[in-house]
Amino acid sequence: MIGWLLSLLLFVSVSFAGDIVPVQEIVVKGTAKDIMINNDKLIIATDSGVVQVYDITEKKFTQEIGLPKIKDFMGDAIPARIHSVDFMDGRFLLLSDSGKGGYSNLWLHENNTTTQLLSPKDKKAIVKARFIDKGHILLGYLGNEAARYDILGKKELYHVSLSPSKFSDFALNEDKTRAVFACESGVLNVIDTKTGKIVKVLEGINLDNVYKVDFKQGIISGAGQDRKGSLYDAKSGKGDFLQGKFLIYATGLSPSAKKVAFAMDEQNNIWVYDRSMKSKISLLKGQKSTLNAIIFMDEDTIFSASDDNTVMMWKLK
Predict the structure, then answer these.
(1) Is 11 helix (H, G, I), strand (E, B) or coil?
(2) Residue 300 — pLDDT band, cuts 50, 70, 90?
């Protein structure tokens, strides 16, 4: 009897050894819509019209960028929802709602000055924007179109349609020469960011919308509506998947791509796996609502954002 109890206790302790709670909860102004990391700075875009910069080492906010309010359909002034944010060489890139016809506002913030690059008069329905280099931006359009925007020349150098499906997300590789675009069909297109040409089509794993993607060390992960966390080799095109228990809304790869994280269940828990072995390493518990971003700062530090005003920090070790 005692032996049986000891075995049961050992089983329980092993079963829950990988369960992790947040080491920090960062409260922001509004709902966190997008997050990115630059060195020891966590940059958070919100739906309240502000971008907040958080010093991870000092554990405090050090900068805030605000955008002008927009008018809703009733003519009332409301905060501009900021859909995406990026940072490179002292420049912030902000993509926000305009309140007019579903078109976007694109902003560049540098030296305490915010400059508007695109407005509703340009009629651009953009969902995501990221720097390719200091002078060029990759744009992801609602209609699953990709464009390379020249900041100095104020024009698109290419604008290509990738598929008839609705755009979901894109992610750049480390040197920003390639980007993977996800859409509602489940097909992932890898493009050359200089030319816009499709260099690889990844398909056969997800058969429905891929909400989010990540791209590290030649590996691509996809968060699928069909409950599949897809994993592709961007060069060979070979793919595999991890089976989820619910719609998978977010994913992230560690810098080495040896670890992958997915939002795998209805409780918004984050499951971290050894990618090559497809074995679970940790279960991150404590997320309050539907996830929209998972980012590895290093191999053992993860930040996550969901549809609330709290960004979570996790330590795997």
Answers:
(1) helix
(2) very high
For the sheet containing 301-306, what is the strand order?
24-27, 310-315, 301-306, 291-296
Q: Which residues pair with 221 in a beta bridge?
A: 214, 231
8 A C-beta contact, residue 160 and residue 154: no
Q: Which pLDDT score is estimated for 289? A: 93
Question: Per this entry, what is the length of the chain?
Answer: 317
The residue assigned the tokens 């309140």 is 99
List, edge to edge, every strand of the sheet that includes 50-55. Answer: 32-38, 41-46, 50-55, 60-66
CATH topology for the 20-315 domain: Methylamine Dehydrogenase; Chain H (2.130.10)
Query: Where are the chain's structural domains?
Result: 20-315
CA distances from 221 to 53, 155, 181, 231, 312 (A): 27, 31, 11, 5, 21
DSSP string covering 204-237, please? SS--S-EEEEEEETTEEEEEETTSEEEEEETTT-
Which amino acid does the sequence have at 129? A
Cβ atoms 263, 223 nearer than 8 A: yes
Q: Are 202 and 187 in contact (CB under 8 A)?
A: yes
- Is-contact 167 145, C-beta < 8 A? yes
Q: Which amino acid is at 256?
A: S
pTM (2 decimals)? 0.92
E strand or H helix that includes residue 4: helix 2-16
CA 175/CA 233 separation, integer angstroms:
17
pLDDT at 198 > cutoff 90 = yes
Amino acid type, 33:
K
Q: Which residues contact 259 (CB under 8 A, 6 or more apart)?
A: 253, 272, 273, 274, 275, 281, 296, 299, 316
Cα 53 from chain centroid?
17
